[in-house]
Write a structure and sequence with these properties.
By secondary structure, the chain is α/β, with parallel strands linked by helices. It folds into two domains: about 110 residues, Aspartate Aminotransferase, domain 1 (Alpha-Beta Complex), CATH 3.90.1150.10; about 230 residues, Type I PLP-dependent aspartate aminotransferase-like (Major domain) (Aspartate Aminotransferase, domain 2), CATH 3.40.640. The chain is built from 13 helices and twelve strands. A seven-stranded mixed β-sheet has the order 2-8-7-6-5-3-4, sandwiched between helices. Strands 9-12-11 form a three-stranded antiparallel β-sheet, with helices on one face. Helix 2 packs antiparallel against helix 10, helix 3 runs parallel beside helix 10 and helix 4 runs parallel beside helix 5. The N and C termini lie far apart (about 45 Å). The protein binds pyridoxal-5'-phosphate (PLP). Pyridoxal-5'-phosphate binds next to helix 4.
């Protein structure tokens, strides 16, 4: 039994691609808890208050059945206002939200043009979608436009859906959203923007990088800078209504915990009320850029700084050597990144101080020598 699976794992091991689960250990250069909100006392207090008020741990069912709780609805109303959208919808994870968006909104006869580097969850949705899909070269608006023109020239008549991330999770660069929006306007297309890593980090209130509008749908994961769990889709009211009626990942799934919804509500308040966290994060990013770029880390003014070492084995050995020195730094290998592009993903958060960044600079001198 399970011979295929044993052999498959052996093949992964032979290519230095076998994974295992490792505990958190050492200084945090690995998480997406960019603002350190996961352990913020205000979040813990908000959830403790909700427990004391008798808000249940579990939702008890799908939102369409008995699982709909006033906490979900309150969160969605506040999130719509926060992100400047007409409406929003809370999902239990960003993965489910992305997969549901891409599987549900584009219809048969439509075209999805996606950036070559979008997250696996968008690919999942595209596999389920009845629309055709095509990749465009990373962050190249002209490539998006060419793909749309080629499809129209071949008789494509439906709606075009452009799907991108605003801040790329493994490369740390940001999308040319204004140019992509101009492409969307020229071709009467919709723009789906995964703001997973930009939410909380960019924007006046931490709302992300996209500009809301009638042709824009954004996805804000709550497990990264918001320090919680789940994801909010924000956009036109019709998108929310459609997902509630047709989004299988929303309909056929137990609603997230109402306690977590309360936590996300508090996280949005913290973003608005404590802008100094964002300022501190950007100061730390500036220091990290100055100290880590000379080692080859790519610095784009964002908290994600990949240090590409190419070879899987070398990457994992470097990660282990840094872990042994007390840094929680993880190697990222294919298929998460393209073959030959294995990397250390250095993530800058408020969970580390300036001294930790200086210590990492020193450790990289030793490990990469
Ligand atoms: C760009 C991007 N989108 C979506 C997700 C999925 O979000 P979640 O972790 O909430 O499932 C992730 C990472 O986890 C991500 O990096």
């Amino acid at each position: 039994m399970l011979d295929f699976h044993r052999a498959d794992l052996a093949r992964l091991a032979a290519r230095d691609r076998l994974r295992g689960l490792a505990p958190q250990r050492g200084r945090d250069f690995a998480s997406n808890d960019y603002l350190g909100l996961a352990s913020h006392p205000r979040l813990a207090a908000a959830i403790a208050d909700a427990v004391a008020e008798g808000i249940p741990v579990g939702s008890g069912g799908s939102r369409l059945l008995r699982g709909n709780h006033p906490e979900h609805e309150a969160l969605e109303a506040e999130a719509a206002a926060f992100f400047g959208a007409e409406a929003s919808l809370y999902f239990s994870s960003g993965y489910t939200a992305n997969a549901t968006l891409l599987a549900t909104l584009p219809q048969r006869g439509d075209l999805i043009v996606h950036d070559a580097l979008v997250h696996a969850s968008m690919h999942e949705g595209m596999k389920l979608s009845r629309a055709a899909s095509v990749a465009a070269a990373h962050n190249d608006p002209a490539a998006f436009e060419d793909a749309i023109r080629a499809w129209r020239a071949q008789g494509g008549k439906g709606t075009v859906w452009i799907a991108v991330e605003s801040l790329y999770s493994m490369d740390g660069d940001t999308a040319p959203l204004a140019e992509l929006m101009a492409v969307a306007e020229r071709h009467d297309a919709m723009l789906i923007v995964d703001e997973a890593h930009a939410t909380g980090v960019f924007g006046e209130r931490g709302q992300g990088l996209a500009t809301p509008g009638e042709r824009v749908v954004t996805l804000h994961t709550c497990g990264k800078a918001l320090g919680c769990e789940g994801a909010l889709v924000a956009g036109p009211a019709i998108v929310r209504d459609y997902l509630v009626n047709r989004g299988r990942g929303f309909i056929f799934s137990t609603a997230p915990s109402p306690l977590m919804a309360r936590g996300v509500r508090e996280a949005l308040r913290i973003l608005a009320e404590e802008p100094e966290r964002r300022t501190a994060l950007h100061r730390r990013i500036a220091l990290a850029s100055e100290r880590l770029a000379p080692h080859g880390a790519l610095a784009n003014g964002t908290p994600i700084m990949p240090l590409i070492l190419h070879d899987n084995g070398r990457t994992m050995r470097a990660a282990e050597a840094l872990q042994a020195r007390g840094f929680d730094i993880r190697g990222i290998r294919p298929p998460t990144v393209p073959v030959g592009a294995a990397r250390l993903r250095l993530s800058i958060t408020l969970n580390v101080g300036e001294a930790d960044i200086l210590a990492l600079d020193q450790a990289l001198h030793e490990v990469l020598a």
